[in-house]
Amino acid sequence: MIFLLRAFVLFLLLAAAPAEAVRIFTCGFEENNLTSTIWTSTIGTPTIVTTPAPHSGTYAGAITAGAARQFIRNLSASVTSGTYFIRGYLRIAGDPSFNDRELFATFSSGTVFAARLRMDTNRTLEMANVITGTVITGPILSVDTWYRVEMRHLLSDTVGEMELLVDGTSYGTITNEDTLPTNINRFGFGSDAS
Predict the structure, then answer these.
(1) With contact defined as beta carbons under 8 Å apart, do 188 and 73 qualify?
(2) Backbone angles phi, psi at 23, to 5 degrees
(3) CB 3.0–4.6 Å: which of 3, 89, 102, 138 could bond 125 by disulfide?
(4) How confident is the model over 107-157, as pLDDT tens digits?
(5) Distance separating alpha carbons of residues 122 and 140, to the nearest angstrom
(6) What is the DSSP code (8-state) at residue 54?
(7) Which uninterrupted H or E stretch holds 61?
(8) Predicted model pTM
(9) How is 18-34 classified by DSSP, letter by letter?
(10) What is the edge-to-edge ordering of all strands in the sheet holding 70-79?
(11) Whole-number Å distance between alpha carbons of 68 and 163
């Protein structure tokens, strides 16, 4: 009887466990390498730093202020459907020198963008569906503060969706739009200009 009771309790515990999605791509900068591990290429000269203190671990990716275009990229097989969740921790050291400074993008073959996370000179975070021009306006970011920024991107030519969350708060969802250029084959973190 004790065995049956233990088995029943174990069944209840397993039945109550929350379902979770399988993580397809996960990475911090702990590999201390921008081209030989999970990251597959760079544009410009992004770096890995230990100061200022990273959000967690030892290292953080850094884009140098005043430098030319810089990106850290991951190339994946081209996809044309599915929902992709992107999360990163973001810290800014000052005000951008121009509007629409890019921070993250999903794109296809070169520079055909789908989603762009960007910031204006007043440090307002925005997520744009580049295909349709629809924009979600997020919070105004404080200097020297870590933020958890999440994007959800459902790929579709007709019923696509995008959502922006910052520190767990949703700032809006784009629905029933074209969110898919020909395909998606790159994810990039960085800055599109000096």
Answers:
(1) yes
(2) -80, 120
(3) 138
(4) 776 667 888 888 888 899 999 999 999 999 999 999 999 999 999 999 999
(5) 7
(6) P
(7) strand 60-62
(8) 0.77
(9) PP-PPPS----STT--S
(10) 41-43, 70-79, 184-191, 101-108, 112-119, 124-129, 135-140
(11) 29
User: Please, which pLDDT band fits residue 16 given cuts at 50, 70 and 90?
Assistant: very low
Q: Round to whole Å and give the CA distance between 39 and 181.
A: 23
- Classify residue 189 as exposed, middle or buried by CB count within 10 Å of its CB (0-12, 13-18, 19+): buried
Query: Which residues fall within 8 angstroms of residue 175, CB to CB, at 6 or more apart?
Result: 159, 161
Round to whole Å and give the CA distance between 183 and 181: 5
One-letter amino acid of 95: D
Helices (H) and strands (E) in the chain, counts: 1, 13
The pair of structure tokens assigned to 132 is: 């349709």
Q: Which two tokens stand for residue 136?
A: 């979600």
- Judged by DSSP in three states, 64 sits in coil
Which residues pair with residue 6 across a beta bridge?
none
The amino acid present at 181, given as its one-letter code, is: P
